[in-house]
């Protein structure tokens, strides 16, 4: 998610419907899906076609599959029965019993208690709610009835298991959260005799979702730790329009710890994993980092001393919160947003020299927002130098973001050397500083773009395309005045003083120009603009170095192809000519490797060549100026295919010769004649 890169995509056939969320089997690294209620599909990341993946048709409808890190996948059927995936795959058509009758499952969750998986689900029937606790490996099942609440009903559930006890949290329609404790019983003969007795679970009020007259109508609830919960919902204040918010509450002291408005609306769903929130905000998936401190009264009421505040403002680079809101809501853990903001403003006015050790990175960056340029860069260099090792990248990302924000506010400001120094000396990624390349494009900083393309592993395809288009549109005269790293091209492009390449005689892998012409039954024009050998580099030294940086950039073909189709025809031809030139240069070498630092590989060259031809083939076929280039490329490839075909014919003989050399005694002198047929 941080890299914004799609890793895989699979589709069911037209008419089929995925009927429960897809999960990952942590033990086998496989995906498990159910479509049309009963059809189970299992596949791995390298599988492309879902229709060819493993398929098993079950005898009953599946409600949900839960995957546990050390317990394996567990399947819950709509009838309330539970099976582990291993047991189910032994006999997919095995009979599945109905545990519930006339009840509808409303929620389910799976947990590990010791070495045993525990599955909990709630059902509803005629306004009554029931809780089931199952241990599938022990064939243990317990059913409870939830105590009714007058004029209110549960909207959602969540749970956690601690010390042989299930803690079930219920979010009710009356803006309250109730807690239910369920002991994980050990089955005994006495319990089996009393199994028919229905035990009613009592609940206790855990939290009122109201503060300062405002009431939160929750839609989703997750547990963060033993003292904190997060609630997604609509906050309604008297005389104001309701607004959707993400909130963190301290259940121990009944206080609102943090809140974040979501003006674009949500789907009502909230997920939490490894101290990150995941939610749909508008049309995008938003990721928000959080950190809960050890619960104390001082933290709950916003009186925690600055010196005790952990430095978690490094999460600024996620760009999901405004700077001020982030520091207040998620770092200082103060109570109400309005009160916290005023306290933050008071802290901002404190002198940096007065208490330098207590200021976090986020606070220092906020204090420097209006600082003069020389003060800003001096302080940011100190931040970079003193950044703690575990959070180094996040800290550098915050620094770069602060610099790019200043660039956007002040068009005349651009710390080119500082930015290049940061990119060159630290392992950054696009997701840590997403505005950096946009600012570099705006400022025409080709050297910085080159560095980013060579170093960032997660550049979006649209940005890669924009850089490629910008590089191809630059004139050679303009590039002469630009400082560009040419280490990737200087070793294989020979340049004279007038920047024209020195012509060199080339003999490709195993064949000459005459051999190539004989094979193709055609003669090349002596003064052709596109030489068959590709010996004239179609671009200058600087442009070649920039294009090489593009070739190094990682991409997903599916998402880059639509952008390449928009590349202007003349630029596409120029780029293909350069790729063809590189292809021929690689073919000169026995190991098909270009000399130099960060030179493109033969695989990168061929992949981009194929991608460009896929995107622009129709246009190039129609353009007269591309006809000869395509013809020469075809002849060169065909000659190489024939050459390697001939090599394949003698591969067996060469292997036999190698085997004989290994068997031969080193001290014996002999002359042998091997006849290759």
**What's the shape?**
globular
Please state the average pLDDT score. 77
Spatial strand arrangement across the major sheet: 8-9-10-11-15
Main beta-sheet strand count, sense and barrel state: 5 strands, mixed
- Gyration radius (Cα, Å) is 33 Å
Please give the oligomerization state of what you see: single chain
In DSSP terms (H or I, runs of 4 or more residues), the helix count works out at 20
Strand-residue proportion: 15-25%
* Low-confidence parts: 303-358, 496-534
Helix content: 25-40%
Provide the structure class: alpha+beta
Number of strands: 24
End-to-end CA span: 57 Å
GO molecular function: RNA binding
Main location: nucleus
InterPro entries: NOL11, Nol11_C, NOL11_N
Keywords: Activator, Nucleus, rRNA processing, Transcription, Transcription regulation
Provide an overview of this structure:
The chain has a domain at 623-663. The protein is of the alpha+beta class and 677 residues long. A 5-stranded mixed beta sheet has the order 8-9-10-11-15, with no helix packed on it. A 5-stranded antiparallel beta sheet has the order 17-18-19-20-21. Strands 1-2-3-4 form a 4-stranded antiparallel beta sheet, with no helix packed on it. The chain is globular, with a radius of gyration of 33 Å. Residues 303-358 and 496-534 have low confidence and may be disordered. A hairpin with a 3-residue loop joins β5 (62-68) and β6 (72-77). It is built from 20 helices and 24 strands. Its main location: nucleus. Keywords: Activator, Nucleus, rRNA processing, Transcription, Transcription regulation. Residues 1-291 form the Nucleolar protein 11 N-terminal domain. It comes from Hippolais icterina.
